[in-house]
């Protein structure tokens, strides 16, 4: 739906990283490089960004 | 005498420190105090006047609750201890308002503060995305609480401690098996001797012990020294969190000692 504000497991704030993460990936970085650059260390937080699918723009129409 | 040494600190958000000459009980007591007894502000009440976004009201309120709020907590009192009789006043409550019309993304920086004492720690958190003709108008108030009540009042994450590792090398044949086995890559051979590059990175897994046929390497730990690390969510500086947690431990220990029956 929309990127969660915090990591489900550890509670670290990851919401604000998602737009930056997407910009980096779209500009040709691999997700690994982008996550490392953003300082997302733990795999719980990494999966939050990595596996998220933003659907709110599609759902918002209805 | 207990001793605390800060090993690394990263922008007030991450800290790693060494606590020496304390018992397990004290180390765990400190961990619990940091986690559940340090007060901070978090959203409690949300009044939604209009919400035509794709997210339900509850979802929106939940997202607001998760936002880290930066404030000097000494300026606030707990609502149930406040002179306003739990009605909410500037002493115990920080009020934010939000009015936004699509198409746009609503970020945490769009929340308007009604007092200067508190602000959202991270300005770029997306709260909701609005399409054409969608509107969000709401008012929310943040109050002081502790992690024991709800995780939204928990100021830290990634909080953990481990014992200080002690690695002893005996009759080594320099075969290099342990260097291969170490997942943290902290062993190396230098000047015909097996060296430990950074003993604090050792995770006490004992893979090197298993790999060594001669049994020359021994991994042990100091039961009275602890390496702590934790991160702040942005609502407070890590040192401030640590100081407050230590105050809590001191206060509770004093109360406990005072309540014990006097020795005859």
Write the layout of secondary structure elements.
The complex is a heterodimer of chains A (62) and B (264).
Chain A: H1 17-26, H2 31-38, H3 43-50, H4 56-59
Chain B: E1 3-10, E2 14-20, H1 24-36, E3 40-51, H2 57-65, E4 69-71, E5 93-101, E6 104-107, E7 112-113, E8 118-120, E9 126-130, E10 135-145, E11 156-169, H3 177-181, E12 187-190, E13 193-196, H4 207-211, E14 217-232, H5 238-259
Antiparallel strand pairs in B: 1-2, 2-14, 3-10, 4-8, 5-7, 5-10, 6-9, 11-14, 12-13
Helix pairs in contact in B: 1-5
- Strand fraction of chain A: under 5%
Query: How far is the N terminus from the C terminus of chain B?
Result: 28 Å
Q: Counting H and I runs of at least 4 residues, what is the number of helices of chain B?
A: 5
**According to CATH, what is the topology of chain A?**
Arc Repressor Mutant, subunit A
Q: What is the string of SSEs of chain B from the N terminus onward?
A: EEHEHEEEEEEEEHEEHEH
Largest β sheet strand count, sense and barrel closure of chain B: 4 strands, antiparallel
Strand order of the largest sheet of chain B: 1-2-14-11
Structural class, from helix and strand content of chain B? alpha+beta
Tell me the name of the CATH class of chain A.
Answer: Mainly Alpha
Amount of beta strand of chain B: 35-45%
List low-confidence stretches of chain A: none
**Portion of residues in helices of chain A?**
40-55%
Rough outline of chain A: flat
Number of helices of chain A: 4
> Quick one: biggest sheet of chain A?
none
What gyration radius of chain B follows from the Cα positions, in whole Å?
Answer: 25 Å
Distance between the termini of chain A: 14 Å
Most extensive interface, chain pair and sizes: A-B, 21 and 27 residues
Question: In the CATH classification, which architecture of chain A applies?
Answer: Orthogonal Bundle
Q: Overall pLDDT of chain B, averaged?
A: 91
Q: Which stretches of chain B are low in confidence, meaning pLDDT under 50 for 5 or more residues running?
A: none
């Amino acid at each position: 739906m929309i990127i969660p504000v915090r990591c489900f497991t550890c509670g670290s704030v990851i919401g604000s990283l998602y737009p930056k993460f997407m910009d980096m990936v779209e500009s040709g970085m691999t997700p690994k490089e982008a996550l490392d650059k953003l300082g997302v260390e733990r795999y719980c937080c990494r999966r939050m960004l990595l596996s998220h699918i933003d659907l709110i723009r599609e759902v918002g129409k209805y | 005498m207990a001793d605390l040494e800060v090993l690394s600190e990263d922008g007030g958000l991450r800290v790693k420190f060494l606590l020496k000459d304390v018992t397990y009980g004290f180390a765990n007591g400190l961990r619990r105090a940091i986690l559940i007894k340090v007060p901070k502000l978090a959203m409690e009440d949300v009044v939604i006047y209009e919400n035509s976004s794709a997210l339900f009201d509850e979802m929106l309120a939940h997202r607001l609750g998760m936002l880290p709020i930066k404030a000097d907590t000494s300026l606030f009192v707990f609502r149930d201890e406040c002179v306003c009789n739990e009605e909410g006043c500037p002493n115990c409550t920080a009020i934010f308002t939000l009015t936004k019309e699509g198409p746009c993304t609503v970020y945490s920086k769009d929340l308007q503060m009604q007092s200067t004492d508190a602000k959202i720690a991270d300005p770029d958190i997306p709260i909701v995305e609005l399409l054409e003709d969608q509107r969000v108008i709401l008012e929310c108030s943040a109050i002081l609480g502790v992690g024991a009540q709800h995780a939204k009042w928990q100021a830290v994450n990634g909080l953990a401690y481990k014992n200080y590792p002690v690695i002893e090398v005996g009759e080594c044949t320099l075969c290099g098996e342990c260097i291969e086995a170490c997942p943290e890559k902290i062993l190396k051979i230098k000047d015909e001797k097996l060296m430990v590059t950074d003993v604090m990175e050792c995770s006490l897994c004992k893979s090197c012990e298993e790999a060594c046929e001669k049994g020359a390497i021994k991994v042990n730990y100091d039961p009275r020294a602890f390496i702590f690390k934790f991160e702040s969510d942005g609502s407070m500086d890590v040192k401030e969190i640590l100081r407050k947690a230590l105050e809590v431990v001191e206060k509770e220990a004093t109360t406990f000692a005072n309540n014990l029956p006097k020795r005859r």
